[in-house]
Design goal:
The chain has one domain: Hotdog Thioesterase (Thiol Ester Dehydrase, Chain A), CATH 3.10.129.10. The chain is 22% helix and 37% strand. A hairpin with a 4-residue loop joins β4 and β5. The radius of gyration is 16 Å and the shape is elongated.
Length: 145
């Protein structure tokens, strides 16, 4: 399934702390991936699923691949808005499009796509996304049926 671009993607706000910055006072590049991970986790939580609960049930979501483009730096104390939009939903994987913007000026700082696979916790082999969770993602107004 492919997403339409009409609906607003899920958003999660976070603040840049000292620990997120490098010696130059800007957000270290890998931390944008952490911010995006948090937004995906909160998206899952907004659907009624906690990753800890899914892990107890033998299911994990793992990042298969990432593509990121860095546009402008974030700095200490910036408030960031991070989106998590499902643009592709398959039997055992999801593709997210994500952006990190500074709230103060809506400047796009980083954008990327993440292919996330559903795997069994015991052997890390692919497995189908549970029907109820798949249906929750499929009912997203931005995802075409």
């Amino acid at each position: 399934m492919r997403a339409q671009n009409k609906a607003q993607p899920f958003t999660h706000d976070c603040r840049v702390y000292f620990e997120d910055t490098d010696a130059g006072g800007i957000v270290y590049y890998v931390n944008y991936l952490k911010f995006m991970e948090r937004a995906r986790t909160e998206r899952l939580r907004s659907l009624g699923y906690a990753q800890s609960q899914l892990a107890e049930e033998g299911l994990l979501f793992v990042v298969h691949s990432v593509e990121a483009r860095y546009r402008s730096p974030a700095r200490l104390d910036d408030v960031l808005q991070v989106t998590a939009e499902v643009i592709e939903l398959n039997r055992a994987s999801l593709r997210f499009r994500q952006q990190v913007r500074r709230v103060a000026d809506d400047l796009l700082l980083c954008e990327g796509q993440f292919l996330v696979a559903c795997v069994r916790a015991d052997n890390l082999k692919p497995r189908a996304i549970p029907e109820a969770l798949h249906a929750a993602f499929a009912s997203d107004p931005g995802l075409s049926q």
